[in-house]
Amino acid sequence: MEVEMKQQTRWTRRRFLAGAGVGLAGAALAACGATPTPQVVEKEVTKIVQGTPEVVKETVVVAGTPQVVKETVVVEVTQAPKVVELAPASLSVWVWWPSPVESLNKMGEAFTKANPKVTVKNEAPTDYWTKLQTALAGGAGPDIYFMNNVNYWAWALKGVLTDLDDYVAADSAMQDNLMNSWDTAVAFYKFEGKYYGLPFMYTTVVLYYNEDLMKASGLKTPAEVGNDFDWTMFREYANKLTKREGDKVTMWGGSSTEGIETGWLNFVRANHGDFLNKEATKCIIDSQASQDAWDFLVQMRLVDKVSPDTASLQAEPTLSMFMTGKIAMLPDGDWTMKTYNEQLKDFKYNIALLPKSPATGDRGGTTNIVGLVMNKDTKAKDQAWALMTHLLSKDSQDIFAKADVLAPVRNDSAQLYFDPALGPSNRMAAFQMKDFTTPLPTHRKVTWDEMMKPTTQWQTEIFEGRSGVKDGLTNMAKDVNDLFAKAG
């Protein structure tokens, strides 16, 4: 689920808990005479509970004097909060790739069972972003749709998203959902102090490797090396694992020229560089830290020749090359695990943390935090909100986790997604990468597609050797910053 590609708990209203306990304090009575007469102390209290009134009697000894204490409990029977019945509605939900639809259908069925007058239809339209913008421009479109983090800010400022702040403030179930979710994701979706969307799932990027090949070559796997696996070792392994027959490469040791999401930005961030500054107002990809990371990646391809060349990449994408045993190591998104688990039969694969920068000792990562947003023109806002709350409930997030599509945003449900029983054995590395990960670059006005046009152009020029790293990154930064200046 790359950004680049165009690719049962019932919902309840806020719960009100009733109950107040009233404690009894014992009074010490002074003893006078040889055989004191037991005294009866009667005390009436009011205790608010749900149930039938009852009288409780007990005998206690206080200061050596028997006493009978009679407590009368007057019960005020309270009403359980009424479940608000939703008005009839047919809700439409759009997502840009088909993998989540099966899980969403199960969640929708559970929602309709609890709310019989509301139906849910989940779709993954082709040419998603174009169709979505066209529909929204005409005052139509789905009631709820999925949003990637790279477009979220720009779309919020366009005024096409519903301000969800009041809904969140009035819904304790949703508040609980958010409190149990990845805090980085929740914070990201609170844009300029308001929720215009809510996080649903997220990605991490890891290093995939051919475990059988590693062991046959007498190498410790990256997972076995652990924290010491850095860029230097990544490069050494790539050289050792590359196989040639004359001038033809039959096994590439490792791919070093993947795109911004699964490739170079992860290495740049590990080296303490980034694509945008912290304020997300300026492209800083031409920094020295960034140049050093790019130099390393380019050398693996153009100097060592252990990363797929142009002809190989034009013939076959790297995912396919890994599955057919033509690449030994490949940085890629955690979403690819499902494909390998289902389709990879020829060898055993595994994953590890991305290699760390030897200059900083740190790792870097990218994440696409995918969220839910509400169409501002929907005619069924209350029903749509109820569905959003349901989709972020633990029962729904558990369904999504078990489907092995992406990590659900709820921490308690994510444990199911990262379970090594789903495969591969070091699956927890995808969870651990979260600690080194920050969201993909996002601008307030310039969309992802607009930013990526000059970025991809100069990325290709650099990786294919037509431009030096410094010149290429200088031009990349200039072209992106020109877009920012034009947007104002």
Question: In words, what does this structure look like?
Answer:
There is one protein chain. With about 500 residues, the protein is α/β, with parallel strands linked by helices. Helices cover about 40% and strands about 20% of the residues. The strands form six sheets. A six-stranded mixed beta sheet has the order 5-4-6-16-9-17. The two termini are about 30 Å apart.
CATH architecture group name of the largest domain? 3-Layer(aba) Sandwich
The description of the largest β-sheet is:
6 strands, mixed
CATH fold naming of the largest domain: D-Maltodextrin-Binding Protein, domain 2
Q: How many strand elements?
A: 18
Overall SS class: alpha/beta
Poorly predicted ranges = 4-82
CATH level 1 name of the largest domain: Alpha Beta
Shape by Cα distribution: globular
Hey, roughly how much beta strand do the residues contain?
Answer: 15-25%
CATH superfamily of the largest domain: Periplasmic binding protein-like II
What is the share of helical residues?
A: 25-40%
Strand order, largest beta sheet: 5-4-6-16-9-17
Indicate the radius of gyration in whole angstroms. 30 Å
Mean pLDDT: 88
Number of domains: 2
Number of helices: 20
Q: What is the end-to-end distance?
A: 31 Å
Could you write a compact summary of the structure shown?
The chain is an alpha/beta fold and 488 residues long. The two termini are 31 Å apart.
